[in-house]
């Protein structure tokens, strides 16, 4: 339940249902209390520092006023900037306002230039944001974003679209919070596109609503529990054939780096044997990774091998022919990069993909996704969930729409937002490594869905492990990912799998 994500429309319905049988203002009071508790936690031993509370014109502002009243009751110096303008505020926000006025909350009309705040509480806008933030509110957002203290956003960082993770524009701004407490249910926009840069650490507060009352979520947040059942410790009595063959098909002239990076990703993610079936003549072996078996793509037998097709493949007639052969075969397929572009340009190849029975996973970045759907990248990024859903539907394949908060989508509409990873992945070749990792999991018998979930999670966690060890995010290289992915995978196996070896004597 706690990984469920809901749209604004669903949350409005949940709130309406929750209010039946509850006295007016109950949810707002609970939201304010929960926000105050979290704020006190964030203040820690700095409760002597003043807290700035920004209250907007709607019920998000009401939550903020409630929180300010509670903080003042706890002895904190809470100062509210509340400028509802000409708006008629709701009754529940009005009673929250009265409670704040009745206590020791201080009210100001403008931000002091040099406030030394211990914490800022952002209660300007929540799920009711309807247009870009401008005017006085924009000045408040800019001022908060220039402060160095922690910022606790209530429900949604003001200015962010709770469904898509976009900063509401054009030309809008959004609060960059260090923490967000979000009410009734988590929201996809906090975890994809600009969401992770603005929401910071997200805590879900159900406000006393029974999770069983909640509708089916629009998506879920990813986690190792979604693929953990496929992780198994290795038996001593095994051999490289036990772990499958991966063949990377790509490497046109001058583009051999991509398939080699994919191959290293596959090797470090546990594939038994890894081939690189090159379109170009290429070297006889990879001196850095001599375990890889380099072959010519023409004449290479795909039978019994998991194919990772596309890295550095180009768009030649040979590339088309190899892709058609791969699509028509019964190998598990990971389709990336140029292979996605070729499918996007060919209804016939798309039909052959959609008609496959064997596992198929695509790993488009937004531009490749745009080509696949015949749209622009900005349309894809404006609603990543919808775009990923459409790609999976049209291709009848599992899709990983890459980016901050990659979306993993299945043809039946199931979707997961991957929670791992960081800006270190924004480097040449990191997508090739992801393709290789996914190919290795497919080669080890993982179904397409779990292979995609696992590869996205492990790939991101590898980047997080590197940052934890002081490598990156600036300057992280794709070549550093395979070994880190191997470490992550083995940690997961140690944590979640039951020893599959013989019972210990
Ligand atoms: N639904 C829940 O789960 C709960 C909601 N609570 C809290 O309430 C907010 C939602 O409150 P709401 O009043 O619907 O909307 P907001 O407070 O987010 O927005 C305030 C109003 O501001 C106007 N608006 C929108 N965009 C802008 C803008 N860019 N500039 C200025 N004003 C703007 C808009 O009214 P207009 O008529 O002017 O369009 C909004 O209505 C939710 O996020 C929770 O924090 C409950 O307290 C807990 C459960
Ligand atoms: K907010």
From TrEMBL:
Subunit architecture: Homotetramer.
UniProt record similarity statement: In the C-terminal section; belongs to the NnrD/CARKD family. Belongs to the NnrE/AIBP family.
YjeF C-terminal domain segment(s): 223-492
Originating gene: nnrD
Keywords: ATP-binding, Isomerase, Lyase, Metal-binding, Multifunctional enzyme, NAD, NADP, Nucleotide-binding, Potassium
Cofactor(s) in the UniProt record: Mg(2+); K(+)
Domain spans labelled YjeF N-terminal: 11-215
HAMAP family for this protein: NADHX_dehydratase, NADHX_epimerase
Taxonomic classification: Bacteria, Pseudomonadati, Pseudomonadota, Betaproteobacteria, Burkholderiales
PANTHER family found in the cross-reference section: ATP-DEPENDENT (S)-NAD(P)H-HYDRATE DEHYDRATASE, ATP-DEPENDENT (S)-NAD(P)H-HYDRATE DEHYDRATASE FAMILY MEMBER
Annotated cofactor note: Binds 1 potassium ion per subunit.
InterPro entries listed in its UniProt record: CARKD, Nnr, Ribokinase-like, YjeF_N_dom, YjeF_N_dom_sf
Protein's name in the database: Bifunctional NAD(P)H-hydrate repair enzyme
EC number: 4.2.1.136, 5.1.99.6
ATP-binding keyword on record: yes
Function statement: Bifunctional enzyme that catalyzes the epimerization of the S- and R-forms of NAD(P)HX and the dehydration of the S-form of NAD(P)HX at the expense of ADP, which is converted to AMP. This allows the repair of both epimers of NAD(P)HX, a damaged form of NAD(P)H that is a result of enzymatic or heat-dependent hydration. Catalyzes the epimerization of the S- and R-forms of NAD(P)HX, a damaged form of NAD(P)H that is a result of enzymatic or heat-dependent hydration. This is a prerequisite for the S-specific NAD(P)H-hydrate dehydratase to allow the repair of both epimers of NAD(P)HX.
UniProt xrefs under CDD domains: YXKO-related (cd01171)
Organism: Massilia phyllostachyos
Positions contributing to (6S)-NADPHX binding: 59-63, 126-132, 137, 155, 258, 312, 365, 432
List of residues binding K(+): 60, 122, 158
Binding site for AMP: 402-406, 431
Record field: catalytic activity: (6S)-NADPHX + ADP = AMP + phosphate + NADPH + H(+); (6R)-NADHX = (6S)-NADHX; (6R)-NADPHX = (6S)-NADPHX; (6S)-NADHX + ADP = AMP + phosphate + NADH + H(+)
UniProt superkingdom: Bacteria
């Amino acid at each position: 339940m706690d990984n469920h994500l809901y749209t604004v429309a669903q949350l409005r319905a949940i709130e309406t249902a929750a209010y039946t049988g509850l006295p007016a203002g109950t949810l707002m009071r609970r939201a304010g209390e929960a926000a105050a508790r979290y704020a006190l936690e964030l203040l820690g031993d700095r409760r002597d520092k003043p807290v700035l509370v920004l209250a907007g014109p709607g019920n998000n502002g009401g939550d903020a006023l409630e929180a300010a009243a509670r903080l003042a009751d706890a002895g904190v110096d809470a100062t509210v900037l509340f400028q509802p303008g000409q708006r008629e505020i709701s009754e529940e926000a009005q009673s929250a306002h009265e409670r704040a006025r009745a206590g020791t909350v201080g009210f100001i009309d403008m931000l002091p230039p040099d406030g030394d705040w211990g914490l800022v509480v952002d209660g300007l806008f929540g799920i009711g944001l309807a247009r870009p933030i401008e005017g006085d509110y924009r000045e408040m957002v800019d001022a908060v974003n220039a402060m160095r203290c922690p910022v606790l956003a209530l429900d949604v960082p003001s200015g962010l679209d709770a469904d898509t993770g976009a900063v509401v524009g054009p030309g809008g701004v959004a609060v960059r919070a260090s923490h967000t407490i979000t009410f009734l249910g988590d929201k996809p926009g906090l975890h994809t596109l600009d969401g992770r840069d603005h929401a910071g650490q997200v805590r879900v507060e159900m406000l006393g609503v029974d999770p069983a009352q909640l509708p089916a979520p629009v998506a879920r947040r990813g986690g190792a529990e979604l693929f953990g059942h496929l992780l198994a410790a290795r038996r001593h009595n095994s051999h490289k054939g036990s772990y499958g063959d991966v063949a990377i098909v790509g490497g046109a002239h001058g583009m051999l780096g991509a398939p080699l990076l994919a191959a290293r990703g596959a090797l470090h993610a546990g594939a038994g044997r890894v081939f690189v079936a090159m379109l170009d003549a290429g070297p006889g072996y990879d001196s850095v990774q001599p375990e890889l078996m380099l072959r010519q793509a023409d004449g290479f037998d795909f039978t019994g091998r998991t194919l990772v097709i596309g890295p550095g493949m180009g768009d030649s007639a040979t590339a088309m022919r190899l892709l058609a052969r791969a699509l028509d075969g019964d190998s598990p397929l990971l389709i990336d990069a140029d292979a996605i572009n070729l499918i996007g340009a060919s209804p016939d190849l798309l039909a052959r993909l959609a008609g496959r029975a064997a596992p198929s996973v695509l790993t488009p970045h937004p531009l490749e996704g745009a080509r696949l759907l015949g749209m622009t990248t900005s349309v894809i990024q404006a609603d990543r969930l919808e775009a990923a859903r459409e790609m999976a539907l049209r291709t009848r394949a599992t899709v990983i729409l890459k980016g901050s908060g990659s979306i993993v989508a299945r043809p039946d509409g199931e979707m997961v937002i991957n929670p791992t990873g960081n800006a270190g992945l924004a480097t040449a070749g990191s997508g090739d490594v992801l393709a290789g990792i996914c190919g290795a999991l497919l080669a080890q018998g993982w179904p397409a869905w779990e292979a995609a979930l696992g590869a996205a999670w492990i790939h991101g966690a590898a980047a997080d492990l590197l940052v934890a060890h002081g490598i990156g995010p600036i300057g992280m290289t794709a070549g550093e990912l395979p070994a880190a992915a191997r470490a992550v995978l083995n940690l997961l196996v140690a944590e979640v799998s039951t020893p599959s070896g013989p019972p210990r004597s």
